[in-house]
UniProtKB/TrEMBL annotation:
One Pfam family linked to the record: ADH_zinc_N
Stored InterPro entries: ADH-like_C, ADH-like_N, ADH_Zn_CS, CAD-like, ER, GroES-like_sf, NAD(P)-bd_dom_sf
Example GO biological process: lignin biosynthetic process
Cofactor: Zn(2+)
Source species, domain of life: Eukaryota
Gene Ontology molecular functions: oxidoreductase activity, acting on the CH-OH group of donors, NAD or NADP as acceptor; zinc ion binding
Protein name as it appears in the record: Enoyl reductase (ER) domain-containing protein
Residue ranges annotated for the Enoyl reductase (ER) domain, each copy included: 10-344
Keywords: Metal-binding, Oxidoreductase, Zinc
Organism: Lactuca saligna (Willowleaf lettuce)
Family named by the database record: Belongs to the zinc-containing alcohol dehydrogenase family.
Amino acid sequence: MEGRKVTGWAARDTSAILSPYSFHLRKTGPEDVLFKVLYCGVDHSDLHQLKNEIHFTTYPLVAGHEVVGEVMEVGSEVKKFNIGDIVGVGCIVGSCGECWCCKTNKEQYCSKMVFTYNAINNDGSFTQGGFSSAMVVHQNYVVNIPENLAPEQAAPLLCAGVTAFSPLKQFINSEEVIRAGILGLGGVGHLGVLIAKAMGHHVTVISSSDKKKHEALTDLGADCFLVSSNHDEMEKSLNSLDYILDTIPVSHQLQTYLPLLKVEGKIFIVGAAPEPLQFGASGLILGKKTISGSFIGSIEETQEILDFWVEKGLKTMIEVVKMDYVNKAFERMVKNDVRYRFVLDVAGSDLE
Ligand SMILES: NC(=O)c1ccc[n+]([C@@H]2O[C@H](COP(=O)([O-])OP(=O)(O)OC[C@H]3O[C@@H](n4cnc5c(N)ncnc54)[C@H](OP(=O)(O)O)[C@@H]3O)[C@@H](O)[C@H]2O)c1
Ligand SMILES: [Zn+2]
Ligand SMILES: [Zn+2]
């Protein structure tokens, strides 16, 4: 059933150019939360989807999955949220609730998981994301934004932040100093550096150029900075890292980076390169190394990273822009010209 008419910015085809688009939200059901979107982060995954690089995009597509909003209406069975609350929604807005993944707080891996946009809701409606004036989401996929966290600061944590946090959590109580590598210093990468530092790790940024060296070492507090094309620097860092968080969004040679890992080191692939990654088997075997993937984090972990952020007094590095800048924002993201995340001021953009 159709609910409120809203305006978002949608792409109509693989050019991924966004422009205003009106559509109807579903009606607020008993377990739903309707919220006005305040801010929405701009993630490289949005671009992969808008360009149909993952090959299942339905147009018109309203992207945006780092969404912070203010609750306007709640269904009769919603107990967790009240009108006026500041809330967040990340990458997923549904799952089956019954499978092993759902029962063990890993609902992001449920085979019936529903993406925040470009997916079909349980009621048959098409999901559209946070580049829009309002959203309706089932309460189980909504998190509370802590009172002392600015909403625009919170937005990137809802996808990029939890994506870095989820695989790194396993090291939280380590008694030894963990030596971390953060590969690619973009939206996810910069939060990875801040999280790893806050966990007490010794952090090396591995970057494609030296352009971000000064700010990585000063503003983000990284301990070392490696330029991946500098053979001497890379050679000196062989066998030095316990893990690498790989955030590169394009195809790359894993075997360039695997030798940086110590014996039993792990590389966590979170960058969603559309093309296959390459590595040689011997690089893995001789060193008992692990390649693993990781997809965002659970709803529980999403709440955890928000609370962790406040507890550790961390600061997301963002550039806040209005919705009519979104095409330029994507253009600059592709040119690697953002420090380090665009956040759209949706409520301040007068979409309606
Ligand atoms: N697994 C998940 O759940 C999840 C969640 C969020 C995002 N993602 C994916 O993670 C990736 C990163 O997202 P993001 O929003 O952080 O993107 P981003 O802001 O564009 O950052 C990516 C970084 O990778 C490096 N890079 C870019 N192009 C490169 C190239 N051609 N060769 C080598 N390095 C390159 C750059 O860092 P340097 O300048 O330091 O080289 C860049 O800042 C995307 O593929 C996105 O879809 C996955
Ligand atoms: Zn499930
Ligand atoms: Zn994302």
